[in-house]
């Protein structure tokens, strides 16, 4: 069990995908994403292994939840700045966690 204070340390926020590209250099099929987290936090880059259930065209404009306070991680030629959250398995595919209704970019999960 963890305390609420432990959970509160994880900075989970909503952002809108503003760019999605193929990522052929990745070891496993993935997309490169640029996600806008609002004026205060700006746009962050990452990669996501979501190619089984999502086409590039449907990703731009989609709001997603991501962890912003993990250390940056080099993934091939890009530096991943956030961890996009999803549910599922590699066999079935990953389903992105998205808000039911549009909310302001940068909104923190409570």
- Overall number of structural domains: 1
Low-confidence stretches: none
The CATH homologous superfamily is called: Nucleic acid-binding proteins
Which CATH architecture would you pick? Beta Barrel
- What order do the strands of the largest sheet run in, or round the barrel if closed? 3-2-1-4-7
Oligomeric state of this protein:
single chain
Fraction of helical residues: under 10%
Q: How many strands, which pairing sense, and closed or not: the largest β-sheet?
A: 5 strands, antiparallel
Strand content: 35-45%
Distance between the termini: 18 Å
Number of strands: 9
Structure write-up:
The protein has 110 residues and is mostly beta strands. It has one domain: OB fold (Dihydrolipoamide Acetyltransferase, E2P) (Beta Barrel), CATH 2.40.50. It has 2 helices and 9 strands; from the N terminus they run αβββαββββββ. The strands form 3 sheets. The protein has a 5-stranded antiparallel β-sheet. A two-stranded antiparallel ribbon has the order 5-6.
What topology does this entry show?
Blueprint: H1 4-8, E1 12-22, E2 31-36, E3 43-48, H2 56-59, E4 63-67, E5 73-75, E6 78-80, E7 83-84, E8 86-89, E9 93-96
Antiparallel strand pairs: 1-2, 1-4, 2-3, 4-7, 5-6, 8-9
Quick summary of this structure?
The chain is mainly β and 110 residues long. The protein has helices at 4-8, 56-59, and strands at residues 12-22, 31-36, 43-48, 63-67, 73-75, 78-80, 83-84, 86-89, 93-96.
List descriptors.
110 residues, mainly beta, OB fold (Dihydrolipoamide Acetyltransferase, E2P), five-stranded antiparallel beta sheet, two-stranded antiparallel sheet, 2 helices
